[in-house]
Amino acid sequence: MKHLLSAKDLDHDAIVMVLDTAEAMAATQKHSIKKLPTLRGKTVVNLFFEDSTRTRLSFEAAAKRLSADVINFSAKGSSLSKGESLKDTAQTIMAMGADAVVVRHSASGAAHLLAHAGWINVPVLNAGDGTHQHPTQALLDAMTLRRWYAPGGPAGGAGRAADGSPAPRGRDLDGARVIIVGDVLHSRVARSNVDMLTHLGASVTLVAPPTLLPVGMEDWPCEVSYDFDGAIASVEPDAVMMLRVQRERMSAAGGGFFPSPAEYSRAYGLDALRRAAMPEHAIVMHPGPMNRGLEITAEAADDPRSRIIEQVGNGVSVRMAALYLLLADEGNQL
């Protein structure tokens, strides 16, 4: 595979290869000198048409730790504000000698268009396109879960046998139970994680009000619930992943997706009571940025079993792995 555009594009073996490579990259970051010479002489362009902090900085850190040169492009203040097209921007970037392009765009399918329209001939990594896909986020979430769930992982997790009892299951996520809660309708993270985690053997339950679930979910390999408390009780999750309420997309669509922030928080927010109802070993996750007090309380976000900060660190390792596998001399292993 020349590009990384969607979680659907990766089969089981490819996912495991990326995650194992990410673990190797994470190990190098414990050294006093964190920089590797792997991509010396390569140029990575971060092409961000949407605001981002974690993803942009994470890709930048990943490329620099592999010794690549990085060019950061932001739509704000660029020629795009003067009417320049995506095609012209892409060709300008190629003229600067880019070896890979990391793209985030508000339009679903923008990364695929950039990769396949014939404008550029270098690997494209999708850093999030509209409400469609965010494959490296799903990879870092899988890495976080595998560390804390899979036996033999750095956190020494214990797998779950078919009858629900702890048992060794290898380094996949066979039997792991994950609940993803919140604004599924606008979430590329939810879509990517359903694809990624089920590939690794986990079962996924999506929890949201009916107004925040997309049409046509019948073919998604997951369960759906409208009742957060009921899902916690019946699923007994190994992880609960809270999604950001994307108020900026709701405003653009005219709003009206739930009666009030207070009612949403009461029905679908993770607070201390719901955290206490989760299994003792279950971890809390969130892709960030968080709306504290809306989808998650400060107490739940800062709980000792919260892995939210660890997710950020794992993101650098995963993106180092993706860049390495696509760009190193023996690259295009995806």
TrEMBL record:
The pathway entry for this protein reads as:
Pyrimidine metabolism; UMP biosynthesis via de novo pathway; (S)-dihydroorotate from bicarbonate: step 2/3
What sequence ranges are listed for the domain Aspartate/ornithine carbamoyltransferase Asp/Orn-binding? Answer: 175-326
Q: What is its EC number?
A: 2.1.3.2
Reactions catalysed, semicolon-separated, are: carbamoyl phosphate + L-aspartate = N-carbamoyl-L-aspartate + phosphate + H(+)
Q: Which GO terms describe its cellular component?
A: cytosol
The reply to whether Hydrolase figures as a keyword in the UniProt entry is: no
Where's the Aspartate/ornithine carbamoyltransferase carbamoyl-P binding domain?
2-146
Biological process terms in GO annotation: 'de novo' pyrimidine nucleobase biosynthetic process; 'de novo' UMP biosynthetic process; amino acid metabolic process
Q: Does the keyword Ion transport apply?
A: no
Looking at its record, which EC class is this enzyme?
Answer: transferase
* One annotated GO molecular function: aspartate carbamoyltransferase activity
Q: Which residues bind carbamoyl phosphate?
A: 54-55, 104, 134, 137, 288-289
Positions of L-aspartate binding: 82, 188, 244
Record's superkingdom?
A: Bacteria
Q: Which UniProt keywords apply?
A: Pyrimidine biosynthesis, Transferase
Q: Which Pfam families match?
A: OTCace (PF00185), OTCace_N (PF02729)
The UniProt similarity line reads:
Belongs to the aspartate/ornithine carbamoyltransferase superfamily. ATCase family.
NCBIfam families associated with the record:
asp_carb_tr, PRK00856.1
Q: What does this protein do?
A: Catalyzes the condensation of carbamoyl phosphate and aspartate to form carbamoyl aspartate and inorganic phosphate, the committed step in the de novo pyrimidine nucleotide biosynthesis pathway.
Q: How does it assemble?
A: Heterododecamer (2C3:3R2) of six catalytic PyrB chains organized as two trimers (C3), and six regulatory PyrI chains organized as three dimers (R2).
Q: What is this protein called?
A: Aspartate carbamoyltransferase
